[in-house]
User: Which sequence fits this backbone?
C-alpha cells in the first residue's frame, strides 16, 4: 500500500519536475534545425513542412505533413497527441530494424531513409526541435506506454490472439492477415491507405518486434483508421493481456519465404510425376520458393510511381516433357473489371490483375542478354502474360514476342502448348504456367535444356491500382536452372580416387619392404 | 626435419596467396589459388630435391615410417587419412554448385568521343557544363541553379539513387547493377561533367557492351527531361555531395 502511494506521488511529480526543464530545452535548436531541414528534408516535406516538396507527388505513402502535428508512429498513449522526443529522434535517425532491407533503414518500404549515417545526433535533435516548433509542440503530458507486462509467446497465447484477430482485425487486415480487407480506407489527409500485410514484417514502418506491434495495437496509428485498442470508449477495447495475445499472433504469421534474399537462381526441380497445371497440386510442396523484389516500371513511358505489389515468389518443376512455373504474389485486391465490389475498393477504373514471365527467345551462350525490359531488336524475348477474369470474360493468356518497349507482337499460345491458370485466395494470387520443354520452332521459342543458366524476369499488374499496359511492377533478370538429378557418379568418383590412392600406398609399402 | 620444412613452406605460400584477399575482403577465387599452389609446390620440391643428399633427407621420414616396424601405428593412421582426404577433395571439386554465373561489368567505361542527342552532335572532349561558370561569376544565380537541379533530382532520380544520394533509394534493391551512389570519392568525383551528361542522356541502353547495357535500369533521360535540366541536376549532385567534377588538366 505504502509502495503504491509512493509510486503515485512519484508519477505525479514527474511532469512538474521535467516541465520546461533545461534538459529538454537544450536538446536542439530549432533555427539550426531549419538550416539542416532546408538542405536535407524540404525536397519531400516542403519548405514550410506541408508535405508539398517537389518529390511529394511521386510517392505513396506521401511524406508526413508537419503542419498538422499528427504522427502515425509514436509510443505515447492514444489520447496524447504529441510523440515523445525519442519517437521524433528515432523517426529521423532510423536504423531501428535489425535486419532491414538495403535502403530501408528508416521508415521501411517508404522513401524516408534513416539519417544515422549522414547526420550527427545533435543535428537530429536540432531537427526534432525545428519540426516540433512548426506546430509549437511542447513535451507530451504523458510518457510512452509501458511494454512491461509482456505475455510470452506460446501456442495458447497465439491461439487466443488468432481468435481475437479474426473477430476484431480481419475486417481490414484480412482473414489471413495479408491486408486484403474489404473496405476502402483513407487517412485524414485524404490519401488511400492500405492495412499492413502482416505476413511481411520487413515492410512494417518501424520495427517488427513484438513490443512495437503491441505499441501499434495499444496506441493505434493516428490519422488512419487503425484505432487504439486500449481506448475505453471504443467498442473494440481489448485488455492489456489480449493485446499481447494479438501481438504474439501477428508475429507468428510472418512468412519469411516471401522476403527476397541474395539468391538469384530459381532451381527447377525435376519430378517423376505429371507436371501440375494448377496451383493446388500437392506436387508443389516438394519445390522451394525463390522470391524477388518487384519495383515499378519507371524506365519507359508511361512510367509508374505508386506500386502496390512489392515481391513475387516462384517455384518451378519439370519432367522429361514439360515445365511449370508457380508464381505467387500478395495482392490486396482481386481486380474484377465490371464487378461492383471490386470497383468500390479500387483506386479508380478497375483493370485485370496480371503476371508475366519473361524469357530470352534464345538462351544466350555468352554474357550478353536481351535488354531486361521487353528485349531489344537483336535479342528478342518471349513473354508469357496471364490476366485475371472479368465479370464477362474468363482468365486469358497471351504469348508476346518483345523486341523493345514498343515492338511487341502477339502469337497464339496454344500453338506451342502454353497454358495458364490462376487462383486468388485471401490476398494471394497463385498462377501456374505450363509448357512443353521443347517446341517445333527453335528460333522463335525458348528450348528448356537441363543444366543451363537461363535468364528469367517477371512482371505483375494490380488492376485495382490503375496498373495496365506499361504501368506495372517488374524485376530485373534473374536465373532459372533446370537442376538435373545428381547421379551416383558424384559419390562413386571420390570413392574410386580414394581406392586408387590406397592401392598406391600399398604398392609403395611393398617396394620399400623388398628393399 | 626437411619434410617439416617442406610442409612449413607449403603453408607459408598458401597463406601468402590467401591472406591478402581475405584481409581486403575480396578473396581470390579458389581455382586461381589451386593453380598458384601447384606452381609453388613444384618450386619448393625442385629446390629441396636439388641434390641427392637433400632428396634423401626430405624423404627420410617417409622412408622410415614405411620401413621401421615400431612406426606401424603412425603408418596405418596415415594410410587411412590420405585416401579419405583425397576422396573429400575430389568430391568438393566435382559436386555440382548452383551459383549464378559471375557477370563482370565495367562501371565507368570509356566514353565515345562524340554523342548524338537532342538532334545535335556533342563532342564529349570539349563539352562543358554551361552553368558551371556561375559558381564564381554569380554565386546567387548558381545557388538558384543548384536548387532547380535538386528539384529535377527529387522528381526523377531519388527512387533509385536515394534521398541521400547514396545509391540506396527505396526501389534500388530491385535492380542489378545497383544504382550508383554519388556520395564518396570513387564515383562522380572521378568523372568529368561531360561524362556524367553522356551517362544521364543516353541511360542504360547507351552503355557500351562491356558495361552490360541490357542490365542497367537507367532510363534514357533524353526522352524525359531537357538538356538544361540534365546540366542543372549535374550541378546538384556535385553540390549536395561536396564533390568536385574532374577537369581536363
Assistant:
Amino acid at each position: 500500500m505504502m509502495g503504491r502511494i509512493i509510486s503515485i506521488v512519484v508519477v505525479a511529480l514527474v511532469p512538474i519536475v521535467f516541465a520546461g526543464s533545461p534538459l529538454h530545452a537544450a536538446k536542439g535548436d530549432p533555427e539550426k534545425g531549419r538550416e539542416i531541414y532546408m538542405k536535407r528534408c524540404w525536397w519531400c516535406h516542403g519548405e514550410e513542412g506541408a508535405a508539398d516538396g517537389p518529390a511529394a507527388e511521386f510517392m505513396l505513402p506521401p511524406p508526413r505533413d508537419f503542419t498538422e502535428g499528427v504522427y502515425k508512429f509514436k509510443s505515447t498513449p492514444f489520447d496524447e497527441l504529441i510523440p515523445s522526443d525519442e519517437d521524433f529522434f528515432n523517426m529521423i535517425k532510423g536504423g531501428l530494424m535489425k535486419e532491414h532491407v538495403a535502403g530501408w533503414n528508416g521508415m521501411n518500404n517508404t522513401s524516408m531513409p534513416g539519417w544515422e549515417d549522414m547526420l550527427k545526433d545533435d543535428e537530429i535533435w536540432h531537427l526534432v526541435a525545428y519540426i516540433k516548433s512548426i506546430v509549437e509542440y511542447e513535451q507530451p503530458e504523458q510518457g510512452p506506454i509501458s511494454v512491461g507486462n509482456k505475455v510470452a509467446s506460446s501456442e495458447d497465447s497465439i491461439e487466443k490472439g488468432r481468435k481475437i484477430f479474426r473477430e476484431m482485425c480481419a475486417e481490414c487486415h484480412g482473414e489471413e492477415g495479408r491486408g486484403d480487407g474489404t473496405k476502402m480506407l483513407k487517412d485524414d489527409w485524404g490519401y488511400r491507405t492500405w492495412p499492413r500485410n502482416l505476413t511481411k514484417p520487413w515492410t512494417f514502418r518501424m520495427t517488427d518486434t513484438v513490443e512495437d506491434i503491441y505499441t501499434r495495437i495499444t496506441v493505434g496509428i493516428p490519422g488512419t483508421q487503425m484505432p487504439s485498442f486500449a481506448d475505453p470508449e471504443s467498442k473494440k477495447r481489448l485488455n492489456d493481456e489480449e493485446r499481447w495475445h494479438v501481438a504474439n499472433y501477428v508475429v507468428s504469421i510472418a512468412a519469411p519465404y516471401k522476403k527476397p534474399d541474395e539468391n538469384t537462381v530459381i532451381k527447377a526441380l525435376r519430378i517423376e510425376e505429371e507436371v501440375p497445371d494448377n496451383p493446388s497440386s500437392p506436387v508443389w510442396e516438394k519445390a522451394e520458393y525463390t522470391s524477388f523484389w518487384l519495383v515499378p516500371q519507371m524506365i519507359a513511358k508511361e512510367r509508374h510511381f505508386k506500386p502496390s505489389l512489392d515481391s513475387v515468389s516462384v517455384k518451378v518443376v519439370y519432367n522429361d516433357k514439360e515445365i511449370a512455373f508457380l508464381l505467387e504474389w500478395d495482392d490486396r485486391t482481386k481486380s474484377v473489371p465490371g464487378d461492383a465490389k471490386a470497383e468500390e475498393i479500387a483506386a479508380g477504373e478497375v483493370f485485370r490483375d496480371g503476371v508475366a514471365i519473361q524469357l530470352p527467345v534464345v538462351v544466350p551462350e555468352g554474357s550478353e542478354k536481351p535488354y531486361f525490359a521487353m528485349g531489344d531488336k537483336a535479342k528478342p524475348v518471349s513473354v508469357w502474360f496471364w490476366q485475371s477474369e472479368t465479370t464477362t470474360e474468363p482468365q486469358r493468356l497471351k504469348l508476346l514476342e518483345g523486341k523493345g518497349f514498343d515492338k511487341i507482337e502477339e502469337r497464339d499460345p496454344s500453338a506451342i502448348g502454353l497454358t495458364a491458370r490462376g487462383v486468388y485466395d485471401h490476398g494471394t494470387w497463385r498462377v501456374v504456367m505450363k509448357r512443353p520443354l521443347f517446341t517445333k520452332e527453335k528460333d522463335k521459342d525458348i528450348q528448356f535444356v537441363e543444366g543451363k543458366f537461363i535468364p528469367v524476369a517477371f512482371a505483375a499488374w494490380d488492376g485495382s491500382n490503375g496498373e495496365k499496359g506499361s504501368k506495372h511492377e517488374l524485376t530485373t533478370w534473374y536465373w532459372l536452372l533446370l537442376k538435373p538429378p545428381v547421379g551416383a557418379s558424384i559419390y562413386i568418383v571420390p570413392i574410386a580416387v580414394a581406392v586408387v590412392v590406397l592401392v598406391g600406398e600399398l604398392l609403395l609399402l611393398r617396394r620399400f619392404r623388398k628393399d | 626435419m626437411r619434410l617439416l620444412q617442406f610442409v612449413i613452406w607449403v603453408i607459408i605460400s598458401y597463406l601468402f596467396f590467401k591472406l591478402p584477399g581475405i584481409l581486403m575482403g575480396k578473396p581470390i577465387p579458389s581455382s586461381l589459388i589451386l593453380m598458384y599452389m601447384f606452381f609453388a609446390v613444384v618450386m619448393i620440391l625442385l629446390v629441396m630435391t636439388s641434390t641427392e643428399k637433400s632428396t634423401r633427407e626430405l624423404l627420410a621420414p617417409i622412408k622410415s615410417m614405411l620401413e621401421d616396424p615400431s612406426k606401424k601405428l603412425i603408418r596405418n593412421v596415415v594410410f587411412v587419412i590420405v585416401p579419405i582426404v583425397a576422396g573429400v577433395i575430389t568430391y568438393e571439386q566435382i559436386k555440382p554448385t548452383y551459383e549464378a554465373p559471375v557477370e563482370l561489368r565495367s562501371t565507368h567505361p570509356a566514353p565515345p568521343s562524340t554523342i548524338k542527342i537532342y538532334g545535335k552532335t556533342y563532342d564529349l572532349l570539349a563539352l562543358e557544363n554551361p552553368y558551371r561558370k556561375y559558381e564564381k561569376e554569380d554565386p546567387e544565380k548558381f545557388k538558384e541553379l543548384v536548387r532547380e537541379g535538386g528539384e529535377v533530382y527529387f522528381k526523377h532520380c531519388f527512387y533509385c539513387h536515394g534521398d541521400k544520394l547514396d545509391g540506396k533509394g527505396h526501389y534500388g534493391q530491385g535492380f542489378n547493377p545497383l544504382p550508383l551512389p554519388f556520395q564518396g570519392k570513387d564515383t562522380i568525383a572521378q568523372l568529368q561533367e561531360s561524362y556524367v551528361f553522356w551517362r544521364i542522356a543516353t541511360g542504360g541502353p547507351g552503355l557500351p557492351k562491356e558495361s552490360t547495357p541490357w542490365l542497367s535500369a537507367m532510363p534514357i533521360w533524353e526522352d524525359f527531361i531537357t538538356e538544361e535540366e540534365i546540366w542543372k541536376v549535374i550541378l546538384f549532385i556535385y553540390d549536395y555531395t561536396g564533390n568536385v567534377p574532374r577537369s581536363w588538366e
